Amino acid sequence: MKVTLYEVWMPLRSEFRTSFGATRLRPAILVRVEDEGVEGWGEVVAGEGPWYSYETVYTAWHVLEDYIIPRLRGTPDPAEYSRITGRIRGHNMAKAGLEMALWDLKARRQGVPLWRLIGGVRREVRVGVSIGIKGSVEELLRDIARYLDEGYGRIKIKIAPGWDLDVVERVRREYPDIPLQVDANAAYTFLDAPRLARLDDYHLLMIEQPFYYDDLLWHADFQAMIKTPVCLDESIKTPHHAMEALRLGSARIINVKPGRVGGIGPGLEIHKFWSLSAGRPIWIGGMLETGVGRGHLVALGTLPGVRYPSDISASNRYYEEDIVDEPWELSKGSVIVARDRPGIGVDVDMDKLSKYARRKKTFMIGES
Ligand code: OSB
Ligand code: MG
Fold this sequence. Notes:
By secondary structure, the chain is an alpha/beta fold. The chain has two domains: 2-111 and 349-364, Enolase-like, N-terminal domain (Enolase-like, domain 1), CATH 3.30.390; 116-337, Enolase-like C-terminal domain (TIM Barrel, Alpha-Beta Barrel). The protein has helices at residues 57-68, 81-85, 92-110, 114-117, 137-150, 165-174, 193-196, 217-225, 239-248, 258-261, 264-277, 291-301, 315-318, 350-356; strands at 2-18, 21-35, 38-44, 124-126, 129-131, 155-158, 180-183, 207-208, 230-232, 253-256, 282-284, 335-337, 357-364. The protein has a seven-stranded parallel sheet. α1 crosses α3 (92-110) and α9 (239-248) runs parallel beside α11 (264-277). The chain is globular. 50% of the residues are buried.
């Protein structure tokens, strides 16, 4: 097997601002695996700095090159992957990039779409759009109007101290009935809990990750205080955290991001435990992925436990030009349709990829 890493920097159509910072140029590592003429693609979603999590595009490259790739023998099945990477603590985004590529390879070898291989039950994935913090409420309202006009049926807005209750109030006054949710990206402490509890007045679908990025306790206390479902993002890094969250009552909903949890396999484990066993909903979160990572999100979005719209928007919501042959598009009813093609359903356009690539390295993997 051959593994190639590409570090790409993709210009976003507009700045994306959250409580932890702003991005204009989104880095990613695209991972290509090739075996006997069949390829598979994955994506490392770590950012330019340790803001969403401690990983960066540089730490991920280092961990892939120096610890993960040297442990590979032959062409591993994704089922063996956790055994291969098990001794490496954390660095889930680095692990996930290669794991996803192995899933795509496996599906393409079998000639089946990835969503079928992992047990998806529908091709139409309900999606929404996640809108960053803006310079003014007017600007936010213009963006919301535009996305609704484009056909997005669910809006998520980012909140942070100084950009929360008043903003939600204005959005609700303008749009009393749209499916709406908020995401704080861990911007608050429990001292803010009484104020945040007033979000209950706006019939939001959920409040995502209000507190500390490792917290489960404050979220549990907060969930007990409010009617609106709490959704965890940053705090759920492994299937074990999902078990802890269930035991503690930290959330009713989990946003599953394959990058954050270490890949498709751990995502499926969380789905099995949280949704199939415990009967609770999940949805699929995004990290501004290129068309490659997006293909993996779409595949996960077809799982039966996905019962809220996912943060999987069309390629053109993020990028002027995506690097895949057929960019992801929004279809009627605010859905993205999983493709009836082997693997993730897209091929990488190598000319476009080279346009955005700043670093590339190939590794030959021996049989033993
Ligand atoms: O918290 O869900 C998040 C983007 C980067 C980092 C964290 C988050 C996000 C988003 C964007 O909300 C979701 C998307 O890809 O559309
Ligand atoms: Mg989030």
